[in-house]
Amino acid sequence: MSPVAFGVTAGIAFGVIDVLLMIPLDHPDKRTAMIGAFLNRFAIGFLIPLVQTPIPLWLVGAMVGILISLPDAVITKAYIPILVIGLIGGIAIGWASGKWVA
Question: Which DSSP symbol is given to 28?
Fold first, then answer.
């Protein structure tokens, strides 16, 4: 699979998973929060397979997941859940892109 196709697929999947995790949460503007979370996670999934470095892709995923998640974590002050989900998703997408991206 091409890196762009994998990135779009991974980004949509990660975004949907994160939005589903947010359903039970209470938020004053839930729709906006869910759209922002989807876009954040889509960016993580999309970027990881496109980054070319000499380090393992799971590590690229970890770094991208943390770096892209940091602004949302700072704004919401929900550091642990946002950074942990970004880290886990980033590692998983990095590992998967190492296996399936041509």
Answer: T
Return d(Cα 10, Cα 23) in angstroms, integer. Answer: 20
Q: Is 12 exposed, middle or buried (0-12, 13-18, 19+ CB in 10 A)?
A: middle
* pLDDT confidence of residue 11: 97
Q: CA-to-CA distance for 23 and 5, rounded, in angstroms? A: 28
Q: Which amino acid is at 69?
A: S
Q: Is the pTM of this model over 0.70?
A: yes
59, with CB counted inside 10 A (0-12, 13-18, 19+), is middle
Q: What is the pLDDT of residues 54-101, one digit of tens each?
A: 999 999 999 999 999 999 999 999 999 999 999 999 999 999 999 999
User: What secondary structure does DSSP assign to 43-91, as a single string?
Assistant: HHHHHGGG---SS-HHHHHHHHHHHHHHHHHHHHT-HHHHHHHHHHHHH
Q: Is the pLDDT of residue 102 over 80?
A: no
